[in-house]
Amino acid sequence: MSNAIHNFLEEKVKPNFDKGGKLEKYYPAYDALETFMFVPGHTTGKTGSHIRDGIDMKRTMIMVVVALLPALLFGIWNTGHQYYLALGEQADFMTKVIYGAIEVLPIVVVSYAAGLGVEFIFAIINKHQVNEGFLVSGMLIPLCLPVEIPLWMVAAATIFAVIIGKEVFGGTGMNILNVALTARAFLFFAYPTWMSGDKVWIGEGTNEAVAYADGSTGATLLAQATEKSSGFVNAAGAQYGDTFWNAFMGFIPGSIGETSTLAILIGAAILLITGIASWKIMLSGVLGAYVMGLIFNAFAVNPFMEVPAHYHLVMGGFAFGIVFMATDPVSAAQTSTGKYVYGFLIGILGIMIRVFNPAYPEGIMLAILFMNVMAPLIDHYVIQANIKRRKKRTLAVA
């Protein structure tokens, strides 16, 4: 069946898009759809990121999307869970999933529609292949946003991130900043009331639900940590029995895909087993955050510095950022030693920003974006150090 479809495309459809065909100028759009369905017989590209292996860039990006599915699926269920928890009502598993899907999937659809629309336009204008990188960015953007974000904001942020964060630098493989975090940063600075503050994020549903949640909960876990309260409370105002366990499992309000550390770790395992992501960045990022947490515990002068170091690893978007965004092969450090330094500094800066900025009790986004800019400098000094060591060995032998 697949061979018949492929032959049909090659013999009947493709000639219309080849040079001289009546749809020649739309060849990039056809090529994107064909290579999405069938592995092409050519490498991904000559500049920026490209794959010279048994799979092409699209298959690599799709594997990352697969790794994101546990976080997406849990985020859909948790959206419904937090909504009915805020109402104080009981709901079965499927009821929560259906509500969550209604809230979450439109955000995913808008992200892909806006981003791929821009990608196709640039590909047709510049007469190059459609960049594959947005297959991942299109999923990352919704997962790092609050569920009640207006759809037009999602579209605006996505278009901004693709144009300003990637296309102006030359497309996939040439951007210096993580595209998804560029979209989130755009929303954070352009519409701060939607992206920051200490109120929990749950589905809008009815005004009654929103009013109940705002009135009964103090704040998100990160914001509550700045207060010397006897314990954390959930979306229904009830105190958690085991805050660390609930945060690890993800039974807390937050951005769509960032709440469940367990789901994120499943995705991390997929990325590591397939060899797509760097374990060096993940490990050093976790160590950097834990070390910074221990230092703050030792010299605590404010409530947030007293938060146990291991709590920082499961709160906010730390785990999601370290696994899926810090490891971006384009904007991260490229050298082996540089990856350790890059990840470790992200961990340190992420917790430092989180602790010292009570107006924005989450620092992983800013930490990763800052280190994206510093990554080439880190690689430069690592390479220079290697050159000096080799030069000394050469002179010693001579």
What does this structure look like?
The chain has helices at 2-17, 27-37, 57-87, 93-126, 134-143, 151-165, 179-190, 192-195, 207-216, 221-224, 243-249, 261-273, 279-298, 309-312, 318-325, 336-356, 364-397. It is globular, with a radius of gyration of 23 Å. It is mainly alpha-helical and 398 residues long. The protein has a domain at 1-38. The protein starts with a helix and ends with a helix. It contains 17 helices and no strands. Helix 3 packs across helix 9 and helix 6 (151-165) crosses helix 7.
Name a few traits of the molecule.
mainly alpha, 398 residues
Q: Show unreliable segments.
A: 211-219, 233-241
Q: Structural class of the secondary structure composition?
A: mainly alpha
Helix tally equals 17
In total, the number of strands is 0
**What is the oligomer described by this structure?**
single chain
Question: How much helix, percentage-wise, in residues?
Answer: 55-70%
Gyration radius from CA atoms, angstroms: 23 Å
Strand content: under 5%
Query: How far apart are the termini?
Result: 65 Å
If you average the pLDDT, what whole number results? 79
Q: Give the overall silhouette.
A: globular
- For the report, how would you describe the main beta sheet? none
Order of helices and strands: HHHHHHHHHHHHHHHHH
